[in-house]
Each structure stands twice: as C-alpha cells, then as structure tokens.
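pls ignore typos typing on phone
zinc ion + seq
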Amino acid sequence: MNDPTAPSAPSAAPGRRRVLRGALALAGTVALRPSAAATPAAAAPAAAAPTGSAIAVRRFGRYEVLALLDAHGPFPGTRQAAFPDATAADWERARRLDPAAFGPGDTWEPDFRCHAVRRPGGRVTLVDTGIGPVGSPASGWAPVPGRLPAVLARAGISPADVEAVVLTHLHEDHYGWSVTPEGVPVFPNARYLVQRTEVAALGPTRTARTYVVEPLLRAGRLTEVDGRTVLAGPAGPGGAVTLLPTPGHTPGHQSVLVEGGGDRLLVTGDVLVHAVQLVSPAVRYAYEADPATARRSREQLLDDARRTRAVLATAHLNRPFVRPWAVEVATG
Ligand SMILES: [Zn+2]
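k done
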C-alpha cells in the first residue's frame, strides 16, 4: 500500500507535494514523521475490529502457508480517491468479492496481512512484517499497533524460528515489525531479503533507509537480491519458494511463489491492494510509483495465476486467500 497522508497534507508546498506523490510513501513519512512520532496514537486512525480470523492456513505439499492478520482499519480518504479510474460496475463486482473492505460511506477498510511459509522442521520464511508497533513509521496513518508478534506466537512460531524475512517492498506497512524502534532485528536468526533495485531507489534520508535498511545492514542481516531468486527448492515434489520481481507499485517490488504438492500460491504483496484491482486489473492505485509498470505486473501475475490455478495471498484484501480463476474479470 502506500502513505495516504501525502495528498491530504494541506500545507505542502507544490514542490513538496510533487515529491510526496512522486516518491510514494517514504518521502511522505519523512515529512510527517515528527508529528507522527509526537502523537502516534492520536495521529493514527482507530483500529476496527478484524472481520476475519487472525490466522488462516493452507497446505502446499510439504509447505504450510499461514496468512497472519496484523491489523484491520480504515484507510484515510475515499476509496474513489485511492482508485480514481474505478467505475460503479467495478465497485459492485469488488463488493461482491470482498464486502468487508467497504466501510461506511465511501471508505476503504483494508486488512494488513503478513504471510509465513512453514517448511518441514519448523523453519519459517516470513513475507512482510506489517505496520508495526505504536510509534512505527506507519503510525501516521495506519491502525497501529499491529498484532503480528502475538499472532505469530499463537501460530506456534517464535521469532527465532524465522530464517528468512522477505520484504515485498519498502513501504512502512510492510516492514513495521522488521526491527524494533531502537533498530534491533526482531527476528534474530533471519536474513532479510529485498530486491537491490528497491534499496537503490531510496534516497539517503528516506525513512525506510534510516529506520530499517541501515539497522539491518549494521546487523549484517540485509541480503539484497537481483531479480528472480530461488529461496528453497528445488521445484518438484519437495516444493520451492521463489522470489519474483513484480515492479511498478515500487521500483523493486517482489512477490513470492510457493510451489508444493503440485499446487501454486502467490504471495502478491501490493501488486493489487483492493479487490477492485482483481476484478478490473486496469484500475490503477493512486500511489503506484509507475502505474503503467504496475498494471503490467498485475496483469501478468493474474494471467499466470489463472493459467496455473495459483491461489493468491494478498496483503490488503479482507480474505486471506483468493482463487483468481473463479473471479469475474473486466476486460479492456
Ligand atoms: Zn501495503
């Protein structure tokens, strides 16, 4: 997702506003961080009651994929502002698919979800780390605190069990529990994997760089990867976990393909952030870094998922798993 505070910052000068919009969440967070840090709880919208289970599990051969609900709450602004091209028909189809995303009036109420891939022996790859605690960079707009640590404990996963943390991208609602506010890695045995292009696109003062990238580098925990990367495998009866570049939402955005037992699952990250982009993949999200590339990534991922009958595990739909081949899609 992205920082919605940017377009609502009324005092932003034109130059600043352009930076906020063009550079996505991270620049906006820098600008708004002092006030967010001063009153994190007051600045954040109230968390709504989660509509779904905090933990949902699917088995893929030898792998278990757990969808872990960090938080649920209103997204600032209207849903039409977030998805300016969506038509009434798009909204109607999206509402049938994901009614819980539709709050009062014209509001959007996303889930904030992370995913764990548990392999034989209890080793875990965690995909994204949610919005984080009170005072985290997402505090200015997301319903902090997230509950990921408690949800992981309920799932029987201790921080020490996590051997890899995949960050789909460096927006603050995806890295919130990666390090403590003091900069200590939350998962002491994990290497943290992010695309090199994602890190390279960060300016030197971006919050993502100072809050998460630099502490992980100092701790020797950051692994920058280039393009498609097999984490565990090989493919076949034993299954595989593969990182797939899906740029556009951010320059180095990546998704995660899990193959096991002949089945496939895609942890999408923010390739699509609302069901309206599932029923109508041409609909852009207002905060995509490169809308044309984001659309191409979304269409390719959805085409692949439909062709191969892959299940989707998204970060922000109010359903832990979605079968895209069973969804009515608008064309054109
Ligand atoms: Zn997001």
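Confidence is low (pLDDT under 50) at residues 5-51. Residues 26 and 206 are 6 Å apart (CA to CA). more later
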